[in-house]
Structure formats: C-alpha cells, structure tokens
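Supplementary notes for students who missed Thursday's class. We covered one full example, reproduced here. Read the sequence, then the structure, then the short commentary at the end.
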Amino acid sequence: MRIARFDNDRVGIVRDDVIQDLTGALAQLPAHRHPFPHHDALIANLEILANATTTRTVPLARVELLSPVANPGKIMAAPVNYAKHLEEVLADKGIHHGNLVAEIHKAGIFLKATSSLVGPSEGVQLVHLDRRNDHEVELAVVIGTRGRDIAAADALSYVAGYCIGLDMTIRGPEERSLRKSPDSYTVLGPWLVTADEIPDPGNLNLSISVNGKIRQQANTKDLILGVPELIAWASSFYTLHPGDVLLTGTPQGVGPVRPGDVMLASLERVGEMRVEVSAA
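Structure (token representation):
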C-alpha cells in the first residue's frame, strides 16, 4: 500500500494518479484519553486501511500532501552514514564549521524535534538566513511494531514502511539536534510505502535536485550501517514505538538552498516529492 495523509488530515491509498479516500476508516482506531500513548495510532493499526472501502477518489494532483506519519514519538537520525559524505564533510569547512566530525560508529544516532515534521506540500521555511541551510535527502524508515533490543536479523519485521526524508540542516557550531530541529526541517513524503512492497531497503536509488539540477544521487547499498543494523542499534538505547521515524543518513552532494528554490527528491519504489523553500 501507498498510504497518504492529505488536505485536512484525510487519509487514503494512492493508486496511480488518484487517492482513494479512506478517512472514514479512522473511526475504527482505538479511543485514547490522557495520558496519550507514545505512538502513532494509525501506524499501529494499518490493517484497518487494508480492509477499508470507499466510493470517493481524489485526483492526486489536486491534494496537499502532509507527512504520512502524524504523531511520531521520536525522530531518530543517523549522521555521516555514507563514506563519501563523511569525506566531503571533513573536506569542507562550510559543512563541519570547526566541529569534530566522527564516522557513525563514534558519532551515534541523534534525535530531532517532532515539531520539525512537515509534509512536502507544506514546504521548508528557512530560519537564520545569515547562515548556510542545506538539503540532505535520505531513506526514512517508519517503525510499525514496538520493540527493544531488536536483533538485526529480525529488524525488518518491525518496519511499517518507508518514505523519502529530507533532513534540513543549518550549518554552525551547535549540536546537530538543535541545528536540524527548526519547524519544517524534517520533511517526510510523499506517502508511506508499506514494507511488503520494499523487501530490500538496502538497494534503492535516491536523489535530489534543486531548481532542476541534480545535487545528490546514490544508492542505499552504500550505507555504512544498513537499515537492520540501524534499527538494532537504536533499539539498544530506546524502546521503538509504532510511528517512530528513523532517517538513515544522507549521501555526498549536500548543498545550500535559499528562499525561492524548489527541491525534487526521489526514492526508488517510493516515488518523488516536490518541496518549495521559503523564508520563515
């Protein structure tokens, strides 16, 4: 399934150039009262969409696409997880800004604010325009099953699905989690492709262009730590919950964007998403 959130928090299945609106099925979700759970209720119950029916379809070209995950408990991100990206970071002071940059085994996984999450139609609104703001395109993994201390061999069974992630970044001396967490600095989309449609996340082409010019282009087979290893490592520190998002790292070619730019990100077996850049 390709599951999209769109317009005013509606939910549907993408089929070719239309969305089958299944918003009515959300009434089947378990009711929650305060204190609310640490997970996304829809991601924890995707089976209700598989069994839902609808008589309403909407042209895909006419909808505003939101993040396919509405309420992630946490957004985890893997830094410098492509060898060539590590090389470019170490070589470019405009990227590392004097920070000590270590490869991922030493750098560890960091967290981004959930308030930074938007969908492609919402766009990126840059802050601190006196600094360099960069795009970073990534494979995003959405957790579907609660787990802790997950073995790498079992890790893919905990995945709900995959989407494109943009890990927008302000360059500077501060910690990553601060510079990568302004509002709109995490873009997920264009929809969630369920795990059964992508049996091997370790061999997917991904790319991003800015104003029609390719900036980043790579394959997830070049990840230093693959998806199973990242899930295993993350779950050794945190309990993973349905709707948690794991950004797997960006390849070489990161570069600045400015208000007025248009980014087009693509991921094999998922699709592409168009994201406009503006000033906050």
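Commentary. The chain has a mean pLDDT of 94. The chain has two domains: 2-62, 75-279. If anything here is unclear, bring it to office hours.
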